[in-house]
Amino acid sequence: MTLAKKLGIKFPMTLMDYAQLVTAERKKLLYINSYHKGYQWSDSIEKGLLKAKAVIETWQPDIVVTSDDND
User: Fold this and answer.
1) pLDDT digit string (tens) for 5-38?
2) Quick one: which of 68, 71, 37 has its CA closest to 52?
3) Residue 46 near residue 33, CB atoms below 8 Å
4) Pair 31, 46: CB distance under 8 Å
């Protein structure tokens, strides 16, 4: 909010109801796959996570946004 204020950016109060704090603090993620190796669906998810991790480590973005469909 401090940076937004300096830049003259004003957020609608309705948006603030859904806001979440994002910090520069390093976070950890533990991924546990409950399926056995060889189950194609979960194996492909794990491969995707490893690829994403490599890109994140190389590029070091401040924010990562993901989306998925419900199918």
Assistant:
1) 887 888 777 776 776 666 667 777 777 788 888 8
2) 68
3) yes
4) yes
